[in-house]
Amino acid sequence: MFELEIDRVIATAHRLRGYDGACCNLHGHNYKITAVLRAEKLDEIGIAVDFKKLKAELDALLNPYDHACLNDLPDFARANPTSENIARTLYRKLAARMNDGNVRVRAVRVSESDSSRATYFEDEDDGDGAGI
Questions:
Q1: Top-confidence residue, 38 or 132
Q2: Distance from C-alpha of 71 to C-alpha of 59, rounded to nearest angstrom
Q3: For the sheet containing 116-120, what is the strand order?
Q4: In whole angstroms, what is the distance from residue 77 CA to residue 100 CA?
């Protein structure tokens, strides 16, 4: 089994609806997004998934978020743009683009600071958590 990770950074603004504290006000984060994929086998030249393709797919998903107010985007019309909800949304969108029978998204982690992060994953097939 192979595990691959990429990191991307986006700058966004958001406010947390219904939050009792300063985060209910508009504020920003430089989010670090980490995508973890797993593959059972390599192709004929020894690649599980081309990092160039993975970066392009994740960048396409992140482009509408970068330098935007997340509350104004359809993805967060009903769900608060928390790190948890961002991670789940990106996981599901990336899985729809990348899962192919050999390669599958294992987890997506969203770090809103050096010390605060949320990880979303849907499978616990081997019981080791999210692989992050």
A1: 38
A2: 20
A3: 2-14, 27-39, 103-113, 116-120
A4: 30
